[in-house]
Amino acid sequence: MPIYSSRRKRNQAYYSGVLLHIDSNMHMKAQEIFRVIEIGKTACLAHCSVGQLAPLVFLSALFVLFSFFAPPTPSSLPSDPTTNLAMYASRLYIVLVALLATLVAADSLHDSQWSRRAHKAIARSKPAEVAVERSTKPNRRLVRRRSCKAPSNSTSSTIKSVASITATGATQSQTQAETTSTSTSTSTSAKSTSTGTSGGGGGGALSLAALFPEGTPGTSWTTSPKSDSALPLSDSTLNPTRLIKALAHTYMSAPDGKQAMRATYPEGSYTFTHTPQGGLSFYAPGPNSLDMTTAKTLTFGYSVFFEEGFDFNMGGKLPGLYGGNDADVAIGCSGGRRSTECYSVRLMWRTNGMGEIYSYLPDYEVDGFAANKGVCDIPPMSECNPTYGASVGRGAFVFPTGQWTTVSQRVKLNDPGQANGEMQLWVNGKSVIDVSGIILRDSAAGRHRGIQMQTFFGGSEPEWASPKTQSSYFSDFSVAILETL
Questions:
Q1: Which of 284, 296, 401, 459 would be a feasible disulfide site paired with 238, CB 3.0-4.6 Å?
Q2: Gyration radius from the chain CA atoms
Q3: Model pLDDT for residues 217-240, shown as the tens digit of each residue
Q4: 107-153 pLDDT, tens digit each
Q5: How far is the C-alpha of 413 from the C-alpha of 103, rounded, in Å?
Q6: CA separation (Å) from 312 to 219, 274, 286, 293, 394?
Q7: Between the CA of residue 485 and those of 213, 288, 291, 416, 482, what are the distances in Å?
């Protein structure tokens, strides 16, 4: 019920009681005045603003003043002065009643108009939004959309830094189809964007092209079932060394049925130096048919599946390439250890699944390696610190949960004494980060050594720990030599 309605009823009752105390003639006039005011007020409520009440008040006042000061006809003049005084007193009383009624009308109208305008303002400040979550389940189709906004298209750009480093960053917004077999990822970042697609529903890699974005030369291998010459996904293919035995890397079916290697992160686990330990850790040179140490330029691709509802917390590490002057030195570039004699180029997830390249390169503060400072400026966001690895292109893409994402990295060694090394990342077949003009080795002894097959939560502090026991799955491991030394 409107606010003014209850006030009107109370005031009418009050004025009706008062009017009973005046003579019948004046009573009729007062009731007529009140009725005129109420009619005008009702009409104004439907069609007028508060400022438009002024004519009503003005006309009411004229009516009252005319009624009060109009000279009485001779027939109506009382012969008794006392009666004449009483008549004018009654009229004065009617004036007060009419003015009070007008004020009540104005007050009620103001409340009503304010209430309507306030609700409109609130409605304007909170645009309608229907937020629904998307899932690969057919019976749970959700869409996030905002009223009065057209969907944005994805664009791309390349930005060149002062250190002659180029990068193309991209963020992805996930648009899953109702079926569980395909999905398309698109998103934007402040500085650069690109597009990608994600394969799900047991498909793993979208195609061999997503694993080998630079082509499939004769010197290559893959465990992807999409290849007619696929190698088995097993230790016999990867040839793991330097395992942390407490961390099992189990070969099993992923949630969608695809053959994969599972990594489990117990609740509270982070890095490998704390209990409980989680993830997996080993180094893999791959099959004997391909010697990575002979390569100048390598590509390494795989597919990763984070289980539905995976909680990324603050971040964690994913597999990538590593190298160095010899097999023992090569494993020294991680865990807060940095050297001019080794490198590692892994991937990392951050909060909400934001992806990036996580690299340990020779320190740019060391003489002769200043070019490596350029990785600190790669869009959409990069961070460098003197102890740990560099976060390169953070947010250039996003890892979804409950479906496969195929990533492939290319790492080119620099010529000794020159800043012409390169690293590039494709996500689902689309280039999202491309960096050139860097230094990965300080001499001809520097070589690619293999796959740093590590994944864990961390960060070196407890707040990085996995908030619950959860798993990820890896498949479609693929390596190709594009250029030899």
A1: 284
A2: 39
A3: 889 999 999 999 999 999 999 999
A4: 544 444 443 343 333 333 333 333 333 333 344 333 333 333 333 33
A5: 86
A6: 36, 19, 29, 34, 14
A7: 21, 18, 12, 12, 10
Whether the pTM exceeds 0.85: the reply is no
Domains of the chain and CATH, by start: 3-125 (no CATH), 154-484 (2.60.120.200)
Rounded Cα–Cα distance for residues 245 and 341 (Å) = 27
- Is residue 306 within 8 Å of 401, Cβ to Cβ? yes
Tokens 């645009």 -> residue: 127
Q: What is the distance between the alpha carbons of residues 412 and 282, in angstroms, rounded to a whole number? A: 23
Q: Which residue has the tokens 């060391």?
A: 366
Distance between CA atoms of 458 and 452, rounded to whole angstroms?
16
